[in-house]
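Entry for pyridoxal-5'-phosphate complex. Fields follow.
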Amino acid sequence: MQIPTGIENVIYLDNAATVYPKPAEIMDRMLDMYKKYGVNPGRSGFDLCLVGGELIAATRAQLTRFFNGTDPNRLCFAHNASDALNILIHGLVNEGDHVVSTVLEHNSVIRPLNHLAKDNVITRDFVPCGADCRLDPDEFKRHLRKNTRLAVVNHGSNVIGTIQPLQEIGRLCRERDILLVVDTAQTAGVAPIDMQAMHIDALAFTGHKSLLGPTGIGGLYVREGVTVKITRSGGTGVKSAYPFHLEEYPYRLEVGTSNTLGIIGLHLAQEYLAKKGVAAIYAHEMQLLARLQEAFLRIDGVTVHGATGLEDRLPVVSVTVRGRDPADVGSLLDVDHGIATRTGLQCAPLIHEHMGTAPRGTVRFSIGPANTEQDVDAAIEALTAIAASAPRS
Ligand SMILES: Cc1ncc(COP(=O)(O)O)c(C=O)c1O
């Protein structure tokens, strides 16, 4: 394939899709280490294989600490958050259960729940949020039923960036023996996550966003005392004579050869995050968001959707432009201004219905660690020009 040159010079404001570019010190070392240690770990006793296994164990330990879990073996790797959420949702429900979720969810939650409901396995409700796109714990409580077994809740919205009051939701669930699964796809790496303080029973994470790893790696953590059913089986590298999948964690929820490259990436990224500080990265991104949002709020013809405060918020802002389709705004930003954003429903249709932005959606600007004030100023200038030239009806 012939790859066009110069495309990497884009002003990248699509970090909620994946953080780009990743710090070179993570990516370069990841490739070096994979070249050296990229054998199939956990399968044999030769030294290279043992080192690969140790790297994986060390990464389980890092991520367990990162989420304030207690047992590194309960940190299981998966392809991404979607994969992990499927493992958790299918592994935690039984026939006849009611599941409560929210309108803030990504399709990686909405679709598995809809499939289970369509097959008459569960019933489910998506709790509406307030005008500020935050969950009201009382509203959440009103949707709980006697047979509610599971709650699946988005920690941070990929559309409008609101962070949900998990501690309170977690307390409500724990008091009623309802299992709480949290989707941390947008928050892990920028917002603090404490499984114990937030009463989280299991969480799903993705490696390629603010955790700063490559694509293709993610995972989940399940707290002790919670049993996730085995829904997939295959090779584990150990106890090969046993005819069924292994019951013990982490094997229980992992099948086949591990993504060693991705796990090494996460390992190095954890070291990087520890050195830079999650809070410092978040502060940098939020400072840029404040500048961007404040300017967007002043542009005639531009509407900022969802939340406009900076508290409990991720560096994401969703807008529409009067007289222009969001897809056209995205194309103009790209073609005329060299700015990459995401348009449409961003895989989260229910929150757009809630905000009245369905079916065309919004234009989403999302900030990452590599963005600068110049990037933000270019976006402000571009959106101002696009709004000013919009047809007036
Ligand atoms: C809130 C949320 N949940 C889940 C996902 C799915 O993540 P992945 O595509 O890495 O599986 C995303 C991806 O954008 C997301 O924003």
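NOTE: The CA atoms of residues 125 and 248 lie 32 Å apart.
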